[in-house]
Amino acid sequence: MASSLYDISIACYRQALGGVVGFLEKGRAHCAQKSIDLNAIVQTRLYPDMLPFSFQIHSVAHHTLGAIRGLEAGVFHPPKDLPELDYAGLQNKVAETLAALEQYAPEQVNAWEGRELVFQIGDRKVPFTAEGFVLSFSLPNVHFHAATAYDILRMKGAPLGKRDFMGQLRTAG
Protein backbone atom coordinates (compact mmCIF):
# COMPACT_ATOMS: atom_id res chain seq x y z
CA MET A 1 0.00 0.00 0.00
CA ALA A 2 1.33 3.41 -0.95
CA SER A 3 1.42 6.23 1.56
CA SER A 4 -0.55 9.34 0.71
CA LEU A 5 0.39 12.95 1.40
CA TYR A 6 -2.13 12.90 4.26
CA ASP A 7 -0.43 9.81 5.74
CA ILE A 8 3.05 11.34 5.66
CA SER A 9 1.92 14.75 6.90
CA ILE A 10 -1.15 15.08 9.06
CA ALA A 11 -1.14 11.50 10.36
CA CYS A 12 2.51 11.88 11.39
CA TYR A 13 1.95 15.37 12.78
CA ARG A 14 -0.97 14.16 14.89
CA GLN A 15 1.16 11.37 16.35
CA ALA A 16 4.00 13.77 17.17
CA LEU A 17 1.65 16.37 18.65
CA GLY A 18 -0.07 13.69 20.73
CA GLY A 19 3.31 12.83 22.21
CA VAL A 20 3.97 16.51 22.92
CA VAL A 21 0.57 16.91 24.60
CA GLY A 22 1.36 13.93 26.83
CA PHE A 23 4.90 14.87 27.81
CA LEU A 24 3.90 18.49 28.45
CA GLU A 25 1.25 17.28 30.88
CA LYS A 26 3.69 14.91 32.61
CA GLY A 27 6.19 17.77 32.78
CA ARG A 28 3.55 20.05 34.32
CA ALA A 29 2.65 17.45 36.94
CA HIS A 30 6.32 16.82 37.75
CA CYS A 31 7.00 20.54 38.20
CA ALA A 32 3.95 20.93 40.45
CA GLN A 33 5.04 17.96 42.59
CA LYS A 34 8.64 19.20 42.87
CA SER A 35 7.77 22.91 43.23
CA ILE A 36 9.59 23.79 40.02
CA ASP A 37 8.49 27.09 38.47
CA LEU A 38 6.82 26.27 35.16
CA ASN A 39 7.61 29.71 33.79
CA ALA A 40 11.30 29.06 34.38
CA ILE A 41 10.93 25.96 32.18
CA VAL A 42 9.56 28.16 29.39
CA GLN A 43 12.90 30.01 29.17
CA THR A 44 15.16 26.99 29.74
CA ARG A 45 17.74 26.13 27.08
CA LEU A 46 19.75 22.93 26.70
CA TYR A 47 22.79 25.03 25.86
CA PRO A 48 23.31 28.81 25.87
CA ASP A 49 23.33 29.15 22.08
CA MET A 50 20.13 27.09 21.64
CA LEU A 51 16.68 28.63 21.63
CA PRO A 52 14.46 28.15 24.71
CA PHE A 53 11.72 25.65 25.47
CA SER A 54 9.04 28.12 24.35
CA PHE A 55 10.61 28.37 20.89
CA GLN A 56 10.73 24.58 20.62
CA ILE A 57 7.00 24.31 21.27
CA HIS A 58 6.16 27.18 18.90
CA SER A 59 8.27 25.44 16.26
CA VAL A 60 6.44 22.14 16.66
CA ALA A 61 3.20 24.00 15.96
CA HIS A 62 4.70 25.89 13.04
CA HIS A 63 6.18 22.82 11.37
CA THR A 64 2.88 20.95 11.63
CA LEU A 65 -0.11 23.26 11.16
CA GLY A 66 2.07 25.94 9.57
CA ALA A 67 3.44 23.36 7.15
CA ILE A 68 -0.07 22.27 6.14
CA ARG A 69 -1.08 25.87 5.60
CA GLY A 70 2.10 26.31 3.57
CA LEU A 71 1.23 23.30 1.41
CA GLU A 72 -2.22 24.76 0.87
CA ALA A 73 -0.83 28.19 -0.10
CA GLY A 74 2.25 26.97 -1.96
CA VAL A 75 4.67 28.95 0.23
CA PHE A 76 6.15 28.42 3.69
CA HIS A 77 7.95 31.06 5.77
CA PRO A 78 9.79 30.90 9.10
CA PRO A 79 7.55 31.98 11.99
CA LYS A 80 7.41 35.68 12.82
CA ASP A 81 6.62 37.55 16.02
CA LEU A 82 6.03 34.57 18.28
CA PRO A 83 3.88 35.49 21.26
CA GLU A 84 5.32 35.09 24.73
CA LEU A 85 3.33 32.31 26.35
CA ASP A 86 3.52 30.76 29.77
CA TYR A 87 3.63 26.97 30.14
CA ALA A 88 -0.17 26.66 30.12
CA GLY A 89 -0.31 28.87 27.04
CA LEU A 90 2.15 26.58 25.28
CA GLN A 91 0.04 23.56 26.22
CA ASN A 92 -3.02 25.32 24.78
CA LYS A 93 -1.11 26.15 21.59
CA VAL A 94 -0.30 22.47 21.05
CA ALA A 95 -3.89 21.41 21.77
CA GLU A 96 -5.24 24.07 19.38
CA THR A 97 -2.75 23.01 16.70
CA LEU A 98 -3.85 19.39 17.01
CA ALA A 99 -7.52 20.39 16.84
CA ALA A 100 -6.91 22.53 13.73
CA LEU A 101 -5.10 19.67 11.97
CA GLU A 102 -8.06 17.40 12.62
CA GLN A 103 -10.19 19.71 10.46
CA TYR A 104 -8.27 18.71 7.30
CA ALA A 105 -9.81 15.82 5.37
CA PRO A 106 -7.55 13.26 3.68
CA GLU A 107 -9.06 14.10 0.26
CA GLN A 108 -8.25 17.78 0.72
CA VAL A 109 -4.61 17.14 1.64
CA ASN A 110 -4.11 14.39 -0.93
CA ALA A 111 -5.25 16.80 -3.66
CA TRP A 112 -1.96 18.67 -3.06
CA GLU A 113 0.21 15.67 -3.98
CA GLY A 114 2.96 16.72 -6.38
CA ARG A 115 2.18 20.41 -5.86
CA GLU A 116 5.09 22.82 -5.72
CA LEU A 117 5.88 24.65 -2.51
CA VAL A 118 8.47 27.37 -2.01
CA PHE A 119 10.22 27.80 1.33
CA GLN A 120 11.00 31.50 1.49
CA ILE A 121 13.41 32.94 4.01
CA GLY A 122 14.20 36.58 3.27
CA ASP A 123 15.07 36.83 -0.42
CA ARG A 124 16.05 33.18 -0.65
CA LYS A 125 13.54 30.77 -2.17
CA VAL A 126 13.94 27.01 -1.93
CA PRO A 127 11.62 24.97 -4.20
CA PHE A 128 10.10 21.67 -3.05
CA THR A 129 7.38 19.28 -4.06
CA ALA A 130 4.75 18.82 -1.36
CA GLU A 131 6.10 15.36 -0.52
CA GLY A 132 9.73 16.49 -0.55
CA PHE A 133 8.92 19.38 1.77
CA VAL A 134 7.11 17.17 4.28
CA LEU A 135 9.65 14.33 4.26
CA SER A 136 12.91 16.29 4.09
CA PHE A 137 12.08 19.54 5.89
CA SER A 138 8.88 19.57 7.90
CA LEU A 139 8.99 16.19 9.64
CA PRO A 140 12.69 16.44 10.60
CA ASN A 141 11.96 19.87 12.12
CA VAL A 142 8.92 18.58 14.01
CA HIS A 143 10.95 15.77 15.54
CA PHE A 144 13.96 17.98 16.30
CA HIS A 145 11.94 20.61 18.14
CA ALA A 146 9.74 18.08 19.93
CA ALA A 147 12.83 16.12 21.05
CA THR A 148 14.50 19.31 22.27
CA ALA A 149 11.44 20.26 24.35
CA TYR A 150 11.27 16.69 25.68
CA ASP A 151 14.99 16.82 26.56
CA ILE A 152 14.56 20.08 28.47
CA LEU A 153 11.83 18.47 30.59
CA ARG A 154 14.02 15.38 31.14
CA MET A 155 16.89 17.68 32.15
CA LYS A 156 14.54 19.12 34.80
CA GLY A 157 13.85 15.60 36.10
CA ALA A 158 10.45 14.92 34.54
CA PRO A 159 9.88 11.13 34.54
CA LEU A 160 9.52 10.70 30.79
CA GLY A 161 10.37 7.75 28.60
CA LYS A 162 10.51 7.08 24.88
CA ARG A 163 6.86 5.99 24.86
CA ASP A 164 5.89 9.47 26.10
CA PHE A 165 7.68 11.02 23.13
CA MET A 166 6.27 8.67 20.50
CA GLY A 167 2.57 9.42 20.99
CA GLN A 168 -0.17 7.08 19.78
CA LEU A 169 1.26 4.48 17.44
CA ARG A 170 -0.61 3.76 14.21
CA THR A 171 -0.81 0.01 14.51
CA ALA A 172 -2.53 -2.38 12.09
CA GLY A 173 -6.05 -3.35 12.90
Question: What does this protein look like?
Answer:
- There is one protein chain.
- The protein has 173 residues and is mostly helical.
- Helices cover 61% and strands 8% of the residues.
- The chain is built from seven helices and three strands, in the order αααβααββαα.
- A three-stranded mixed β-sheet has the order 1-2-3.
- A hairpin with a 2-residue loop joins strand 2 (116-121) and strand 3 (124-129).
- Helix 1 (5-33) runs antiparallel to helix 4.
- The longest helix has 29 residues, at 5-33.
- The chain starts with a helix and ends in a 7-residue tail after the last helix.
- The mean pLDDT is 95.
Short synopsis of the structure:
By secondary structure, the protein is mainly alpha-helical.
Helices and strands in order, then pairings?
Blueprint: H1 5-33, H2 38-42, H3 53-73, E1 75-76, H4 87-101, H5 106-110, E2 116-121, E3 124-129, H6 130-155, H7 162-166
Helix pairs in contact: 1-3, 1-4, 1-6, 3-4, 3-6
Query: Which assembly state applies to the chains in this document?
Result: single chain
Basic shape: globular
Largest sheet: spatial strand order? 1-2-3
Task: Report the structural category.
Answer: mainly alpha
Spell the H/E element sequence: HHHEHHEEHH
Q: Treating each run of at least 4 consecutive H or I residues as one helix, how many helices?
A: 7
Q: Which radius of gyration do the C-alpha atoms yield?
A: 16 Å
> For the report, how would you describe the main beta sheet?
3 strands, mixed
Low-confidence stretches: none
Average pLDDT works out at 95
Beta-strand percent range: 5-15%
Distance between the termini: 15 Å
Helix content: 55-70%
Please report the total strand number as a whole number. 3
